[in-house]
Design a protein that fits this description.
It is built from 6 helices and 3 strands. The protein is mostly helical and 135 residues long. It has one domain. Strands 1-2-3 form a 3-stranded mixed β-sheet, with no helix packed on it. It is globular.
């Protein structure tokens, strides 16, 4: 009987391994990771002085650099994570968490009070990616 129960448990592992739970974290919240739209803010303090790029953009394509907030593991090993942000062939600056928390969030809440009040996402800021803190 124990073998039968163990066999059922082992057989169920792939089903649970593929289950995904969606949690939405909005810009301005502590767990948000993704692109930051500076708007009228001056360039922020960044983790590295020079932009990071993993692969060259296609010939003739010139794009402005991206400002991203990412977990430290992501910017330390950008080549492993850049695809999650559609940014492997973009020049990327990683904003500091302190700037995000103390400058960007208050500015964003001030500029978008309705969204901050009701927790609505700002779709064009997120584009199609949502990045979540997984703890």
């Amino acid at each position: 009987m124990k073998r039968f129960i163990l066999s059922l448990a082992v057989a169920a592992i792939p089903v649970f391994a593929h289950a995904q739970v969606g949690v939405s974290v909005n810009i301005g919240e502590p767990g948000f990771y993704g692109q930051i739209n500076l708007g009228n803010l001056p360039p922020p303090p960044v983790v590295y002085a020079n932009p990071v790029i993993v692969q060259a953009p296609p010939p003739g394509v010139v794009s402005p650099p991206l400002y991203l907030r990412v977990p430290p593991e992501h910017h330390q090993h950008w080549d492993r994570y850049c695809h999650q942000y559609n940014a492997c062939n973009r020049h990327v600056y990683f904003v500091t968490d302190e700037w995000y928390s103390h400058t960007y969030v208050p500015h964003y809440v001030h500029e978008h009070p309705h969204e901050a009040e009701h927790g609505h996402e700002h779709e064009h800021e997120h584009e199609e990616h949502e990045h979540h803190e997984e703890h």
